[in-house]
Amino acid sequence: MEKSWWERSTWKSEHKCGMQSVALLGVTTLALVLALAAPLKEEGKKKEEKPRADIATNDNLDLPNYDLSLDSYGEIIDLSLYEELYDYSDLAPKIEVGTLAPPTKRLEGVVSTRAMPTEAPRRPPLTSPTTKPFGPGLLGSITKQGLPTCLVCVCLGTSVYCDDAELEQIPPLPLETTYLYARFNRISRIRASDFARLKKLKRIDLTSNFISWVDEASFWWLSTLQELILAENRLTALPALPGSIVRLDARRNRIRSSGVRPEAFRELKKLQFLHLSDNKLDYIPVPLPEGLRSLHLQNNNIRTMHKDTFCDSQDHGHIRWALEDIRLDRNPINLSLFPDAYFCLPRLPTGHFY
């Protein structure tokens, strides 16, 4: 059934109006999208343009010849650009009540930061080797090297250690020195004044030096001296010894019998150890003190002895219980030829019996 003209006209009008509404809606949507996209596009442009502007600015400067200072710093680097590119507001620390540091007290007076001139340290005056020092200081008197003794040597309490210090003479020692060790040096002479002021010396060890001369009174007045060690030197004679001596070690020298005073050991009542091995002795030095315990005379030139060397031939009941260590080996002597010389000994000497 065919529609009437009116119906066809009405349908066309409605269809046309619908199409117009759809078109109008599309145009409105497009306009809204364009409106929203425009700001984003402008913002992106700004971000692209600003680094380029910076590059262009830096390129125009002659950086190698440009004098950078606090006044010209802003010409090279525009700090405002960094404020726009980076937002640090989220990183700002949050300050809570009670976390602030207490206020500092105001300093009384003004503290100067200017360096104050100081006096240069003064060296101690050097003393001539022939000049007697006025007295020991905190580290001892001045040595030949121009230094206090306790800088050249090591001072521990009342002991002074001068081993291997290239000394050529006994250094000035602190008055309280009790033990002196000056081994492996180049000392060639002992003077009477070297120990004159020292009243507490108990041990002197001068092993392995070049000592060839000792003044006669060098050790005589040392009333507290108990041990004197002069081993491995160049001595040809023994010095006078104090009555307090307990141990004398002068092995490996060049001592001859003519260099030992007659009856040198008779009055040394406290002497217990007498070591004179590796010298040039021709006979045993007698008389020997009664308290002697050890006598070392090996490797000398001893050829004979008499019957009273160790024992009293008139008193066969006397026994020397202390003298247990006698060494006569490596001497050109036949000990079997002197049987009467050992009857008072607790044990026979060490040596050749043939």
Structure, explained:
The protein has 354 residues and is an alpha/beta fold. The chain is 20% helix and 9% strand. The protein contains four helices and eleven strands, in the order H-H-H-H-E-E-E-E-E-E-E-E-E-E-E. The protein has a nine-stranded mixed β-sheet with strand order 1-2-3-5-7-8-9-10-11. The chain has a two-stranded parallel sheet with strand order 4-6. The chain starts with a helix and ends in a 27-residue tail after the last strand.
Which structural class should the secondary elements be placed in? alpha/beta
The amount of beta strand, in percent, is 5-15%
Biggest sheet layout: 9 strands, mixed
**Total number of beta strands:** 11
- Radius of gyration, Cα only, in angstroms? 54 Å
In which range does the helix fraction lie?
10-25%
Low-confidence stretches: 50-58, 81-101, 104-139
Task: Give the SSE order as H and E letters.
Answer: HHHHEEEEEEEEEEE
Enumerate the strands of the largest sheet in spatial order, edge to edge or round the barrel.
1-2-3-5-7-8-9-10-11
Distance between the termini: 172 Å
Overall form: elongated
Please render the helix and strand layout as text.
Layout: H1 5-60, H2 73-76, H3 79-85, H4 149-152, E1 154-156, E2 159-161, E3 179-181, E4 189-190, E5 203-205, E6 213-214, E7 227-229, E8 247-249, E9 273-275, E10 294-296, E11 325-327
Parallel strand pairs: 2-3, 3-5, 4-6, 5-7, 7-8, 8-9, 9-10, 10-11
Antiparallel strand pairs: 1-2
